[in-house]
Amino acid sequence: xxxxxxxxxxxxxxxxxxxxxxxxxxxxxxxxxxxxxxxxxxxxxxxxxxxxxxxxxxxxxxxxxxxxxxxxxxxxxxxxxxxxxxxxxxxxxxxxxxxxxxxxxxxxxxxxxxxxxxxxxxxxxxxxxxxxxxxxxxxxxxxxxxxxxxxxxxxxxxxxxxxxxxxxxxxxxxxxxxxxxxxxxxxxxxxxxxxxxxxxxxxxxxxxxxxxxxxxxxxxxxxxxxxxxxxxxxxxxxxxxxxxxxxxxxxxxxxxxxxxxxxxxxxxxxxxxxxxxxxxxxxxxxxxxxxxxxxxxxxxxxxxxxxxxxxxxxxxxxxxxxxxxxxxxxxxxxxxxxxxxxxxxxxxxxxxxxxxxxxxxxxxxxxxxxxxxxxxxxx
Length: 379
Ligand code: GLA
Known about the structure:
Helix content is 41%, strand content 21%. By secondary structure, the chain is an alpha+beta fold. It has a domain at 2-195: Ribosomal Protein S5, domain 2, CATH 3.30.230. Strand 7 (181-186) and strand 8 form a beta hairpin. Alpha-D-galactopyranose binds next to helix 5.
């Protein structure tokens, strides 16, 4: 990733004009609430995707990613940006989203991407790819869009052209992250507040089980929530308090939809409670809320898996750990673990050994720091 400028030159035989970097994210709590009008509490992390780019005179868009080197350079024309079922559909979809927002590009460009986010691990490699593409286009063409609009363009690209009906959390965190802080985001209004993470350490454990968000399961959860909201005559589920939900829940005829709704409503409350706990320095309470969040994702939302449940259960028993839960869309991916700083060193090998004993492979672990969102990066 360090050599994105040099690598660009090697590949395209010219110097890039601009280099940007967009981070991945980890969500501390508030899962599957962002398309239900609720709160999320993610932070951007130090891992992400860099992109070097140079404008072209003609209408060709050429994309290369060191992370998908086997695909070689993929070339599109501005007049034909149809999806091809490959990784470059993500940056191409962002170009299409810009056009839909009124910024039609007049000339092409060469792009070189390189990242260090594991793909399909629930750390938002897709959002980082979308946001970094948007940032590069903004710089190359001097387009007056804010970082928040870069997030919206990424989400639009993904909803409309990739076919995943994701919420705004991942792109927002990638675009708007702030070093040392998590973001308490109201996905309904896009109002947000930065919350200092303080002394707690955040560690990610990658189960190595690849999730596929594009698989219909994510979109299915979303439509189950929409049916539940319609049955309750609520515009979005997270507008309801747990008390209101309990009163009306039998109006939701389908049992599964009722469970999904219960998760969304209570998870929204947990996200707010966790943000309050962090403010008060009550990390023990934060950790308990993470445990409740995981249980609800497992039992009511049904997006966990055996490997994630195992990692959470073991982490909860290790010294200095405040709490653990699966993070991101689910069906595999990572857990997020909140712990005392002094506990990290012993935690890493301990969780790896336990997982290896049970599943026969050593999981990757990342001690992460809350980081800044997308930006122009010095070469
Ligand atoms: C994925 C989506 C997000 C969010 C999470 C679950 O990461 O992209 O919008 O819905 O799943 O919280």
